[in-house]
Design goal:
Immunoglobulin-like, 483 residues, TIM Barrel, 5-stranded antiparallel β-sheet
């Protein structure tokens, strides 16, 4: 639900633990072209229908972060993009504002607003871009919506121009941002309407496909939280919006659906909404890959005077770190094709009581928050891993088994305080904390009791280690993991 507040000024590239200190090499144009072709293969694999996939893509291929570069926001920050690449991020999601690009009918300027610079810098660090094609253009109609046939044709032409310029390089296209909210879809006599949005998709998707045949096209982008509040302000609740959108049949022209799963509750509660969206798609006979396109937790100060609408409760920096890692892991376990965290950097001169200023992984000066370290540790240890299975650990306890190039790794956490029993099957096994620290119990070779508070996980269990569920939490004797 972000209002996309701008970011200011260049930031130095700071370290953030061992994972953040990994070197990141800028790629040559030739190397980038090779990487882009491989990236396109990975994107298409992730976007294949669920039933057609034999193996999940590596976890890191699904991880992205929202950024806010290019006019009317802020100039590109090379250090910030390098910092994301150092943390193992593979995608950024960034607006490509129509009214900024087309200021005279049929004339498209991507250089002056800074979008060419953004693409060049992102490609330098092997970051793919999910471009958000969005918002109105006063050349064609007032407001932040497209409701006329002339407007739809003009929007489709702008989208095609963008795809012709940046297509074929592993990037992807998203049609609009949160069209179910009046904040982003409104105008004289206009309120959010799924059928009107579907007509825009129907005009735009073929134009994108013609200009960039390999670039995935995503739709929906619905804000899923606070349905009663959304309806009270004149919007359409996320699930109802998607149901009407799917009823239009327009998903036959695109590759995937995105939803914004903002919530006060822990990340694992998203499973019900994911299942509901898939049921809606199944009812239309076409189930597309689903992305978590924007979602974060803010560390604003709830005791400070609010300077905006703080629509969700604040979390502590430690809880934010836990939730970021758990969100990315759980979304992957649910089979989501992409998970985009909101957002990369906190606002300049951040107001302590403003929710929008404190979603970032790092402070505005580039110093990392615990969430940045949690992301970097996750990608370092399981980024190249493929999910093999979930462990049966009882209610509220989670263990995801990954097969990485370095061997087996289990991401382990609990939604409430829990004590696990761990036993190494041979030497070399260890336990790594969310921040990258080695927290291996001294008695791991026999049977070690390992207690995790809810905000301490996940931890990563490397090597052949048997894990028993927390006995008080398990309804029946849990099974041991096997090598």
């Amino acid at each position: 639900m972000s209002t996309h507040a701008g970011l200011r000024g260049p930031r130095p590239l700071h370290g953030g633990g061992a994972a953040a200190r990994r070197s990141v090499r800028a790629e040559s144009p030739r190397r980038w072209r090779t990487s882009a072709m491989l990236a396109a293969v990975a994107v298409l694999a992730a976007l294949a229908p669920a039933g057609a996939r034999t193996r999940r893509v590596p976890l890191a291929e699904t991880i992205g972060v929202n950024t806010h570069y290019g006019a009317p926001r802020e100039p590109v920050d090379p250090a910030a993009l390098a910092r994301l690449a150092a943390a193992g991020v593979r995608w950024i999601r960034n607006d490509l504002d129509w009214a900024t690009v087309e200021q005279a009918p049929g004339v498209y300027d991507f250089t002056t607003p800074g979008f060419d610079a953004l693409v060049a810098e992102a490609e330098r660090w092997s970051l793919r871009i999910l471009f958000i094609l969005d918002f109105g253009n006063p050349l064609y109609e007032p407001g932040r919506a497209v409701t006329t046939e002339a407007g739809r044709q003009a929007f489709a032409a702008y989208a095609a121009a963008a795809a012709a310029r940046y297509g074929g390089r592993g990037h992807a296209w998203e049609i609009w941002n949160e069209p179910n909210l009046p904040l982003f879809w409104s105008g004289p006599g206009t309120r959010p309407d799924a059928e009107t949005y579907a007509r825009l998709v129907a005009a735009t998707a073929p134009a994108l496909r013609a200009a960039d045949p390999t670039g995935p096209v995503l739709i929906g982008s619905a804000f899923m939280g606070l349905p009663s509040v959304v309806e009270a302000i004149g919007g359409v609740a996320g699930l109802a919006f998607l149901e009407r959108l799917f009823a239009s049949g327009v998903q036959a022209q695109v590759d995937g659906v995105t939803a914004h799963f903002y919530r006060a509750e822990p990340p694992e509660t998203v499973a019900a909404e994911v299942a509901a969206i898939r049921r809606l798609m199944k009812a239309t006979g076409r189930v597309l890959p689903l992305w978590s396109g924007e979602w974060g937790y803010s560390t604003y100060d709830p005791a400070a005077p609010p300077t905006g609408i703080n629509y969700l409760p604040a979390v502590t920096p430690d809880r934010q770190a836990a939730y970021v890692a758990r969100m990315l892991l759980w979304n992957h376990a649910l089979g989501l094709a992409g998970s985009i965290y909101f957002k990369d950097t906190e606002a300049a001169a951040a107001d302590p009581g403003n929710i929008e200023h404190h979603f970032g992984l790092v402070h505005h000066d580039g110093t990392p928050k615990p969430a940045y370290g949690a992301l970097a540790t996750l990608t370092r240890l399981v980024g190249d891993g493929r999910l093999r299975r979930r462990l049966a650990l009882g209610d509220g306890a989670h263990g995801l088994v990954f097969r990485t190039r370095a061997g087996r790794v289990i991401a382990l956490w609990a939604e409430q305080a829990a004590t696990f029993r761990l036993r190494a099957r041979r030497r070399g096994a260890k336990v790594v904390a969310r921040d990258g620290a080695d927290v291996t119990p001294a008695d791991l070779s026999s049977v070690a009791s390992f207690t995790l508070d809810a905000d301490e996980g996940p931890v990563y269990v490397l090597g052949p280690v048997a894990i028993r569920a927390p006995e008080p939490r398990a309804p029946r004797r849990a099974r041991e993991s096997r090598s």
